[in-house]
Amino acid sequence: xxxxxxxxxxxxxxxxxxxxxxxxxxxxxxxxxxxxxxxxxxxxxxxxxxxxxxxxxxxxxxxxxxxxxxxxxxxxxxxxxxxxxxxxxxxxxxxxxxxxx
Length: 101
Hints:
Blueprint: H1 4-22, H2 36-41, E1 76-79, E2 85-88
C-alpha cells in the first residue's frame, strides 16, 4: 500500500522533470514603455534615455539589472512592480533601489 507521502515524493520530482524535458516554462511578456504602470514609474528600456530633470533621483549606472526588484540574470528579467512583466536589465524606473551587497 502506498502512503500519501510516498506518492507526493514520487509525483513532484516526476512533474518537475517532465516540465524540464518538454521545455514548458511560463515566460512573462515584456513591459511596454506606454503601459500605464510603466508610465507612472517613468520606466525606460534604456536608462540613458531617462529624463534626469523629471527624475532627479536617477544616477548614471542605476539600472534594473542592479535593482533589488529585478528577478533575472539575463538581458530581460521580471519586475514585480510592473505586474510581473519583463523589464530590460539596462532599463530604469523611479522605484529603483540598489541591490544590497
